[in-house]
Design a protein that fits this description.
CATH class of the largest domain in chain B: Alpha Beta
CATH architecture of the largest domain in chain B: 3-Layer(aba) Sandwich
Distance between the termini of chain A: 34 Å
Helix content of chain B: 10-25%
Radius of gyration of chain A: 19 Å
Largest sheet of chain B: 7 strands, antiparallel
Largest interface: A-B, 65 and 81 residues
Structural class of chain B: alpha+beta
CATH architecture of the largest domain in chain A: 3-Layer(aba) Sandwich
Radius of gyration of chain B: 24 Å
Largest sheet of chain A: 6 strands, mixed
CATH superfamily of the largest domain in chain B: P-loop containing nucleotide triphosphate hydrolases
Strand order of the largest sheet of chain B: 7-13-10-11-12-9-8
Number of strands of chain B: 20
Oligomer: heterodimer
Number of domains of chain A: 2
Order of helices and strands of chain A: HEHEHEHHEEEHEEEEHHH
Order of helices and strands of chain B: EHHHHEEHEHEHEHEEEEEEEEEEEEHEE
Structural class of chain A: alpha/beta
Number of strands of chain A: 10
CATH class of the largest domain in chain A: Alpha Beta
Strand content of chain A: 15-25%
Number of helices of chain A: 9
CATH topology of the largest domain in chain A: Rossmann fold
Number of helices of chain B: 9
Shape of chain B: globular
């Protein structure tokens, strides 16, 4: 791992930075939680949390915002991983928010619960009185995220103000907040998609099966392959066909597209990403395509 | 593969966005969908060329106003290195943003327009780079195509800048003549400048030696978090007590004699632990957990060092401050929170010695306050000892931030120049 000239590999530097960030949060906040969706970034984040506090257990609960439209393989993975760690999982349900009248279900062919999640997330943060919330977002994912701090301040409405962010210097993070405010913390800020996969390979971390090539019934919409599932509203002229696909990102079934791929293991995936010419969100996320500033607008409201 | 973090300073006029765009494009870090989006926006706005600054200017307000508001981080990799660019705006809030970007940078690129030569802005950028002790500075003399790739012009600029840099404690300084637009000396050596015997910018970024920039001499381990797994399922860990942190200096090994501060007690390192097993040695920037041979009362904010090489335990600090608050100014008698390594305390500004003009380096000793983006030298009194080194010796134990307790904003960055107990 280490050479005599004290050069440190990029994964070791990124891991050391992320561990430092996690310990800083555990030391400075009273009620942190870690957002765990079962997606690859949050899986890596969870491994970092295990490492940061070993041999003690992770000193905060996990939280998943469940839209009810998740891939069943991912929910199964989430529950198994939580059980292995003996962690506490808080599930915040979008369906409950709909039932309680906090949000209204979208209708039509493109109906998605993507945007509704923000309300569910903010309600849960308030109800559980979380003061720091770890997210797996990376700056390379999206241009609004490239401007995000590692400790990202949210006011008492959960909102992000990109024009008024706290300067962040060295490895000194400002954790000061008032009651009702919180900090979103992004320990993987400096990781790229390829770093995540390299790390999954190096650490031999298990990930949900939908990241690997499998046969699936899909249909095409806006150049994306969406899964033919009950929760996805498909028009009659959108023809279903069976093909070999995998997922590059894991979100809602209604807005996450699959890519055609034969990559059956992590090595194949890394080889595929190394030559790909399209970003992971560009290839697979309808939620980012709404407008040029779709991500920024959702983030301002309090999205992940 | 290691990581090089570098900061770029300059404005669109210097060709900074073109340069970054080219580095990203030639290393295949720009994807088709990103390029298409930029081309579409450029077209919609009636711009004739593809405006690569749109790649980094991610916020709605930035796009609307055509300015860069904030530090943007960009990533690319070559087979040799992973690179993190902190791209800082040239005009708006330049000091605050550049200081932020430079604080973690191994290298800074300052762009100079070959036609215009060394401007006030170039001097300002170079000064901030040296103030923040960025170990490597590259002067990229851009737009060489517009001065007929003239060796004389390049030498003129180099001499002028070298004369200025001698007034700063300038680090490793490299001059590269480039044309970001045409790609001369950016990734590969230019055929238009046979007189230039150095390497291309990319080659320099890939090969500049940074491993020895870290302080591997003075052992500094700020205790961040105490790990005591009392409820661990494995009985072997019932009495476990480890001190977690990120190493800020030196090389630590099991068996080493160490001193705990503030107590001054000495003991030995019994083990350096990680999730992946114990390690034989630990050095910056590793995050580890240290166990000690003796039972000493150690908590967050304490420091572990060597008995014969200790930081100053200081309650009086002399520091250069970059003020970042846009509300209250820094003045004598200001009371602030100070965060230094893992310790937070209260600080009182005792004196403002001078305000520094970052363009002329003139010291204004009659200054009574520091406003947003101003830099000055101050004396601080701290409510409890901080374990500090001069910033020039160690950026991790020599740097601190100041927080306004009324607003919780980060309002200042400090670099310790002279610590006394």
């Amino acid at each position: 791992m280490l050479q005599r000239d004290y050069t440190t590999s990029q994964l070791d530097v990124l891991e050391a930075e992320a561990i430092h960030i996690m310990r800083e949060v555990a030391a400075e906040f009273e009620r942190p939680c870690l957002l765990f969706s079962g997606g690859k970034d949050s899986i890596v984040m969870l491994r970092i949390a295990e490492k940061a506090f070993w041999p003690a257990p992770i000193p905060f609960p996990l939280m998943h915002v469940d839209t009810g439209h998740n891939f069943p393989e991912v929910i199964e993975f989430r529950d198994r991983r939580v059980a292995e760690l003996g962690a506490r999982l808080v599930v915040a349900s979008v369906q409950s928010s709909i039932d309680a009248g906090r949000v209204v279900e979208e209708t039509g062919r493109r109906a998605s619960r993507n945007r509704l999640q923000t309300t569910t997330l903010l309600d849960a943060i308030e109800e559980q009185q979380f003061d720091a919330v770890f997210g797996g977002a990376r700056r390379d994912e999206e241009k609004a995220r490239a401007k995000e701090r590692i400790f990202s301040f949210r006011d008492d409405f959960g909102q992000w103000d990109p024009k008024n962010q706290r300067p962040e210097l060295w490895n000194l993070y400002n954790a000061k907040i008032r009651q009702g405010e919180h900090i979103r913390v992004f320990p993987l800020s400096n990781w790229t998609e390829l770093d995540i996969w390299d790390y999954i390979r190096r650490e031999e971390i298990e990930i949900p099966s939908i990241y690997f090539a499998h046969t699936r019934k899909v249909f095409e919409r806006d150049g994306m392959l969406l899964s033919d599932a009950d929760v996805v509203n498909r028009a009659d002229d959108e023809t279903v066909f069976e093909t070999t696909v995998r997922y590059r990102t894991v979100g809602d079934m209604t807005c996450t597209g699959a890519v055609q791929s034969a990559a059956a293991n992590v090595d194949d995936i890394i080889a595929e990403i190394a030559v790909t010419r399209i970003t992971e969100r560009g290839a697979t996320r309808a939620d980012d395509r709404a407008s040029e500033a779709a991500m920024e607008d959702r983030k301002r409201e309090g999205y992940f | 593969m290691d990581i090089l973090r570098f900061a770029t300073a300059g404005s669109v006029d210097d060709g900074k966005s073109t340069l970054i765009g080219r580095l990203l494009f030639d290393s295949k870090a720009i994807f088709e969908d990103q390029l298409e989006a930029v081309e579409r926006t450029s077209r919609d706005r009636g711009t004739e060329y593809t405006d690569l600054s749109l790649l980094t200017d991610g916020l709605r307000a930035e796009r609307e106003q055509g300015i860069t508001i904030d530090v943007a981080y960009r990533y690319f990799a070559t087979p040799k290195r992973k690179f993190i660019i902190a791209d800082t705006p040239g005009h708006i809030q330049y000091t605050r943003n550049m200081v932020t970007g430079a604080s973690t940078a191994d290298l800074a690129i300052v762009l100079i327009d070959a036609r215009k030569g060394v401007l006030e802005q170039s001097r300002r950028h170079a000064f901030l780079t040296t103030l923040l002790r960025v170990p490597h500075l590259v002067l990229a003399v851009n737009k060489m195509d517009l001065v007929d790739y003239s060796e004389d012009r390049f030498n003129e600029i180099r001499e002028e800048f070298t004369a200025f840099a001698s007034k700063l404690s300038a680090p490793d300084l490299t001059f590269i003549p480039i044309s970001a637009l045409h790609g001369d000396n950016v990734v590969s050596r230019s055929e238009s400048m046979p007189w230039y015997e150095g390497t291309s910018l990319m080659h320099h970024l890939e090969n500049v030696h940074i491993a020895s920039d870290r302080n591997l001499v003075d052992v500094r381990f700020p205790v961040q978090y105490v790990i005591r797994p009392q409820k661990a399922t494995d009985p072997a860990f019932h009495d476990y007590r480890g001190y977690a942190g990120q190493i800020a200096g030196g090389v630590l090994k099991p068996g080493d004699e160490v001193m705990h501060l503030p107590s001054g007690l000495t003991t030995r390192i019994s083990s350096i632990d990680t999730f992946d097993g114990p390690v034989d040695e630990a050095f910056p920037p590793m995050s580890v957990t240290i166990r000690l041979a003796d039972d000493i009362d150690v908590s967050r904010g304490d420091m572990i060092c060597r008995p014969n090489n200790q930081p100053e335990a200081a309650q009086e600090l002399e520091a250069m401050i970059c003020w970042m608050g846009d509300g209250a100014k820094l003045m004598p008698r200001s009371k602030l929170l100070i965060k230094h390594t893992t310790r937070t305390a209260r600080a009182l500004v005792r004196d403002l010695h001078y305000r520094l003009d970052v363009n002329t380096l003139h010291r204004d000793e009659s200054a009574e306050s520091l406003s947003l983006n101003e830099i000055g030298r101050v004396s601080l009194r701290i409510t409890q000892p901080l374990f500090v080194d001069d910033y020039s010796r160690n950026r991790m134990t020599g740097g601190f931030i100041l927080v306004d307790e009324a607003t919780n904003s980060t309002v200042g960055a400090g670099m310790i120049v002279d610590a006394r107990s």
